[in-house]
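Quick start: read one record
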Amino acid sequence: NVPNSIGYVHIYAFLGISVMSFITAKFGAKVAHRLSPAMLKKCFAGLLLLVGCYFVYKGLS
């Protein structure tokens, strides 16, 4: 029984993520359409590289 939650879902986190996703989705779609497919792939590869490095760092420490 965690306060402000329904089962495993924290209500305030759910509302915050939902609202911000709704607001930023239009902006993200505009940016994605303006970028070339090659640049979009490079940006996504960079993001995956950063997340992977973070996981390795946290796993080793």
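The helical segments are 11-34, 37-60.
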